[in-house]
Amino acid sequence: MKTMARRTIHYIVAFVILGIYGGQVCPFLESLTILQLLAPIFVTMALFYLLQVMVFNKAIEKTLLKKQSIRVFQFDLGSFFLSGIIIMLFNTVYYSFPLGSGLKIVFALFLMGFFAAIDLSLEKEWVLNRRLEASGDWIEPDLQFFSHPKKLVLFSSACMLLAAGIMFLVINKDLEWMAKIGNEIPVADAQRYIMTEVGFVVGVILLYMFTVIYAYSRNFRNFLDKETVVLQEATGGNFAVHVPISSNDEFGVMAKHTNLMVEGLKHSTEELAKTRDVTILSLASLAETRDNETGSHILRTQRYVKALAKHLQGHPDFRSKLNDDTVDLLYKSAPLHDIGKVGIPDNILLKPGKLTDEEFQIMKSHTTLGGETLRITEERLGSSSFLNLATEIALTHHERWDGTGYPKGIAGDKTPISGRLMAVADVYDALINKRVYKEAFSHDKAKEIILEWREKNFDPRVVDAFIEIEKQFIEIAAQFQDNVPAIDFKIRRTYHE
């Protein structure tokens, strides 16, 4: 609808300018009555307007999307030009106008048609861009296209030539008029009339040029905005974006290769993520295997941590710390919580009985060994949110809320939230699963012990979250059951003490 309204305005403006001002430029047109002057102009332009709306537009919609903009330009410029030819022929046949007068009409309509056609072509690009953006489709730009520098050179050259031509006609007409009137009109009045006329013509040309420049800059700005947004989103890790490709030119090619680049980054990132996840699970499984624990322990604990974190997103104390990205990183890094066990000697790690005080001190070092290993990895590979969280979890998941934990004995909120979440998840899983020195506890017994350790071992808010979502814990435990007996250091430690 906006395109139709824009086309209507262009045709009306052209009719008004040619009808009202044309007679002043051409003395032969001035010799006609208002009806004789306006009737052929109105009928001819109305006919081509209807053809454009009812026939040409349908033909344009059936062409390839990348050709539609240029087709709009061709059809609208052709409509204005042919209107001028028909009006010239009509006046020549019926009123015996000389060829020069007819060509003035053709030139005037060609000038206005040129600007109108460019403006409507740019409007078509704008509408097409919106449509493709909404649908998610795009065009395939050609390898050979009419470049924007060439368009700019052509437009600038045409503007200069057309403006020079119309000004030549105006000045020539005014010189003839001044020669004809001689001294009948004071020089000051003649000068005022000429300057008003020149100002009007220049104003009309500038208005047309401004309209085209505005339409072009709007499309250009729209492309740059979309390109900028997509690049910013891709930089932030969001690869589910693309730049609409709606023009068969440099912008279309740039948009196409931007989209291909984003798709490539998405594919590479997914491959890296898969490789990272496989590496994490492999390392974590290796550590758990040395401890005689099953891989299911890893799967359960990371899901417990995620469930707790998701629930605490609504808590005012944690809302700013547990966004969706952080929760995902917690889920991915949780399996590395006991990676330090690979550094514990087998005679201690695999001992089925009670540990001595000296052995227990060595066992406790798995937290610092894990934290140090991950810290060194981060130093060598570069800073990473994932490695940072993994280091926190490995180092602090045995810290206690009351400050009696290890390795640093920190208390309360000084322990990172990642470590506090892992502490509850890890102990719960140890309680409900069978070990060589104990039978598996029921969920209710495990819940009783965790509640007993509330504000001692565990952050009371995390314990409260555990109680509120205990059904999720039960479902996770049922889904990932152990098939192999295992020993667990957390419970052994409790019995040791």
From TrEMBL:
One Pfam family from the record: MASE10
Keywords: Membrane, Transmembrane, Transmembrane helix
Xref: PROSITE patterns: HAMP (PS50885), HD_GYP (PS51832)
InterPro entries with a match to the protein in the record: Cyclic_di-GMP/3'3'-cGAMP_PDE, HAMP_dom, HD/PDEase_dom, HD_GYP_dom, MASE10
Record-linked Gene3D superfamilies: 6.10.340.10, Hypothetical protein af1432
Domain of life of the source: Bacteria
BP GO annotations: signal transduction
Domain HD-GYP: 272-482
GO cellular component: membrane
Domain HAMP, chain residue ranges per copy: 228-270
The protein's name: HD domain-containing protein
Bilayer-crossing regions: 32-56, 77-97, 103-122, 152-172, 192-216
